[in-house]
Design brief:
- This protein has 263 residues and is mostly helical.
- It has 11 helices and 2 strands, in the order αβαααααααβααα.
- It has a two-stranded antiparallel ribbon.
- Helix 2 packs antiparallel against helix 4 and helix 2 runs parallel beside helix 5.
- The relative contact order is 0.13.
Length: 263
């Protein structure tokens, strides 16, 4: 017991609250909040947008930020208890890369199609081959899109290339924050409907929304393939029964089954 308390009291083995950690939080929060704000601006015009802009919208950003902080702090602190620093930094860099990739996709969709990542886009992406995807990107990559994406890439590299910020707290402090985040997350899940939890914690987070949308799209695609395979098998069995009845009725012969195969 003393050993556990002593371990929690001393400095953490490595910092969790780094520039990469905050990059992930701010990017995933700002993409959703800023993207919807941009869509609101393009739909109503600049003057009408400014006239209706309220501090409440910035309050929504703060709520999205602390929800993202809760989710990613729980994930990162749990990882820090299970793996050493080298593996943790690899996972952290992977999360940064995923956030960056989703950010590029969202910026591309906002500029060209005035939308964020959605199930329709995921469905089209899954049904597109490499050649079609290349032609699509070439068609929708004007100077404006390239310039904005180039600025985003340079900014992301400057913010995440090296660990230039690390706020190292005692393990006991991190553990207290971890417990508070867990309590808040469980309370939010139990005290509200599942739809509320999904809207506030998943759809407001670009990475989680992309992951859940991709999973649902893959699941639906798998069900469609399974249904098609079952339909094909049922049709084949039906044709076989017809040909067998025809053969029994005519006393032999029968047509070639391969000419009736369903595909």
């Amino acid at each position: 017991m003393y050993g556990v308390i002593s371990k929690l009291w001393h400095k953490d083995r490595y910092a969790i609250l780094t520039n990469k950690f905050f990059y992930i939080i701010f990017l995933n929060s700002l993409l959703y909040w800023g993207g919807n704000l941009y869509l609101d601006y393009t739909n109503r015009g600049f003057m009408d947008f400014v006239a209706t802009l309220q501090w409440r919208q910035f309050g929504d950003l703060v709520k999205i930020l602390y929800r993202c902080f809760i989710l990613y702090f729980i994930l990162c602190f749990s990882l820090s208890l299970c793996v050493n620093e080298k593996i943790y930094r690899y996972i952290e860099s992977l999360l940064v890369l995923l956030s960056f990739s989703i950010g590029c996709i969202n910026i591309f969709l906002l500029i060209n199609f005035f939308t964020l990542i959605n199930p329709i886009f995921i469905g089209v992406f899954l049904s597109t081959n490499i050649r079609e995807a290349t032609e699509f990107i070439q068609m929708y990559m004007p100077i404006k899109t390239l310039s904005i994406l180039g600025f985003f890439i340079i900014l992301s590299v400057c913010l995440t290339y090296k660990q230039w910020f690390a706020w190292q707290l005692r393990t006991s402090v991190n553990f207290v924050i971890y417990v508070l985040c867990l309590v808040f997350l469980v309370f939010a899940f139990l005290s509200n409907k599942p739809q509320y939890f999904e809207t506030r914690f998943i759809q407001n987070n670009s990475m989680l929304y992309f992951a859940t949308t991709l999973y649902n799209s893959l699941h639906e695609r798998h069900e469609e393939i399974t249904q098609y395979a079952n339909l094909s098998k049922n049709m084949q069995d039906f044709l076989e029964s017809i040909l067998l009845d025809s053969k029994n009725t005519n006393g032999g012969g029968g047509a070639n089954l391969s000419s009736y195969q369903f595909s």
